[in-house]
Design a protein that fits this description.
The structure is a homodimer. Chain A is built from 14 helices and 12 strands. Chain A is an alpha/beta fold. In chain A, the strands form 2 sheets. A 6-stranded parallel β-sheet of chain A has the order 2-1-3-4-5-11, with helices on both faces. In chain A, 46% of the residues lie in helices and 18% in strands. The interface between A and B is large, with 54 and 54 residues. Chain A binds a DNA duplex through helix 2 and helix 4. Chains A, B: InterPro entries: HTH_LacI (IPR000843), Lambda_DNA-bd_dom_sf (IPR010982), Peripla_BP/Lac1_sug-bd_dom (IPR001761), Peripla_BP_I (IPR028082). Chains A, B: This is LacI family transcriptional regulator. Chains A, B: It holds the Pfam family Peripla_BP_1.
Chain lengths: 329, 329
DNA sequence: TTGTACGCGTTATCAG
DNA sequence: CTGATAACGCGTACAA
């Protein structure tokens, strides 16, 4: 990479003259400016960003820590974050915690050493389950702005962007109740997450409020998802309403029910979570609660850049981005 | 952030003493080391990475430029890249070009100004279609190592990681021919991409080699994917073999065929592209050519880190990661 | 109009 | 054993 010093040596002027000339300082004569700029163009001089960042004490970079990127919800959020950041001349350094507290912690430690101007974090499963917050608190203690989304941690005093998990499942369940459904089951793959608990609670409250009974099945992990669901449906053949609270289980339930000869949505009404592409995948046979991933990413980043701009660190509102609902008629 | 200077002032020693003490230099006395380390621990001193990077002329950061993150294939690749990079103490700065040449170019310009030690790039659709290569060449001209994957550009002399697009579609098609299928159609959503062309060619060559005729339908964009496919199937009711070369069309074709009362795979054999979750989504009714996204990410990053290590810039092999095949019986 | 000097935070070399 | 000095590359107040 060409440096100011190199240009200066070649032109037999001082480094600062070159710097000023390139920044169009009025102190420098037109003739000198021309010479400097021409050589800079020839050698394709570009100022070193590390030096600028060190000097200005601003990196124009955001640290993003998310639990996974395979889940399309997080992919869409990342897309929103990157988009908003880019349009404000910010770069993003992304770390995927893989649901590991340890990796999350290491990433924060690393990036907090001057590499980023602010953090966007969705906590790992492990972090949420074991209520570990010291590493998140350390971000704020280091005077670095932080915004969390979706996987938030109540004890941390920062701006947050969440969805209306409880309400959207409550409403979707109520919708099924109004349609006259009687035998409800909830399939959950994420029972241990904050969002999973909220969604499950919404389901249970809606049915309790209506005086109906229900099953809650915790599928625990992704392996043999279809087998477990098939078994349930076989042994509970009167099931006529299924609510799934993750992005996969609803689709699998649809497939399993159909394989048992059920007609969907006539015999069984299914509600699942999903993202932009999901309705296409299921041919509109199941209702989809759509998380607005991109909008969440936008809002989260907007809040963070505001904080950076005003040099605020902690505090801030909790913004709710309502889920969309793609019903089946 | 605490700095060396602050520690030095408090302890009444010089900055260099503090630095050496923290780095366990044998030049420093045990007693001094203890005092320095204790204060550093108390104030949670962490060396500023920007300064280290500037000094060492190495950022330990990789610039990743991909066309999209919504497509699960790229999400899986990114996952692989991040994983491999992290286990080698590298960060990644991710830019999503959104298939835009302009954004790709801007990102390269920005990151090439000292922010990264190397680039991983999958070219934008626009870049591939209009054969723009100057910005990619400029990476190499700046003496920065580059590895491309999937969306590669032939004219650029760098290491590449690709899949066996042609062969895998050729083989899958041949498989259908051997099963006695007669009326073939290929649905394509990505006709203008290098990978799309290869896949389409594999389909066409397999059928030509077998002396069969076929249709190739370019669906152009994602909107009304189902409507277009439904129309085709209605007007070509003898279709008994469908090959899809992207990750969505096969699933949509399955849904549309079933909605027309077809039994899959009995009446129509369908082959689609997909990723880890796809077989679960389609309940194994359609065969899936599985791109090994994570493996591609691993390999790409491995190649790049090798280059960085040995200070090689251009050149390098083209590695082929064979697609998996998930057949239907 | 141009050049000198300093600082950002770190590390390495060289003196003392 | 410790400290001063220079350097990475840039920008800017101040001096000439």
């Amino acid at each position: 990479m060409t440096t100011l010093k190199e240009l200066a040596t070649i032109l037999n002027v001082s480094v600062s003259t070159v710097s000023k000339a390139l920044n169009d300082s009025p102190e420098i004569g037109e003739d000198t400016k021309r010479r400097v700029k021409q050589l800079a163009a020839e050698l394709d001089y570009q100022p070193n960003r590390l030096a600028q960042q060190l000097k200005s004490n601003a990196t124009k970079t955001i640290g993003v820590i998310i639990p996974t990127i395979i889940n399309p919800f997080f992919a869409e959020v990342l897309h929103g974050i990157e988009n908003y950041a880019d349009s404000h001349q910010y770069d993003i350094i992304t770390t995927i915690s893989n649901e590991s507290f340890d990796k999350e912690q290491r990433a924060i430690k690393m990036l907090a050493r001057g590499s980023v101007d602010g953090f966007i974090v969705a906590a790992a499963r492990e972090t949420q389950m074991e209520q570990k917050i010291a590493h998140l608190q350390s971000i704020l203690n280091n005077q670095i702005p932080l915004v969390m989304f979706d996987r938030v941690v109540d004890q941390i005093n920062c701006a947050k962007v969440v969805v209306d998990d409880y309400e959207s499942v409550y409403n979707a369940t109520q919708n099924l109740i109004e349609k006259g459904r009687q035998h409800f089951v909830l399939f959950s793959n994420i029972a241990d997450l904050s969002v999973g608990k909220l969604r499950s609670q919404g389901f249970q409250d809606a049915l309790k409020d209506a005086g109906l009974t229900f099953d809650v099945v915790d599928l625990k992990a992704i392996d043999n998802l279809n087998g477990k669901i098939l078994d349930y449906l076989k042994t509970h053949s009167n099931t006529d309403a299924i609510v799934s609270i993750d992005h996969l289980t609803g689709i699998v339930a649809l497939n399993m029910a159909e394989s048992l000869g059920k007609s969907i949505p006539t015999d069984i009404d299914i509600v699942g979570f999903g993202y932009t592409e999901t309705p296409l995948l299921v041919n509109n046979k199941i209702a989809i609660i759509q998380q607005k991933g991109e909008a969440i990413g936008f809002k989260t980043t907007e809040l963070l850049l505001e904080k950076i701009k005003h040099k605020e660190v902690s505090g801030g509102d909790t913004i709710v981005i309502p889920n969309g609902f793609n019903p089946v008629y």
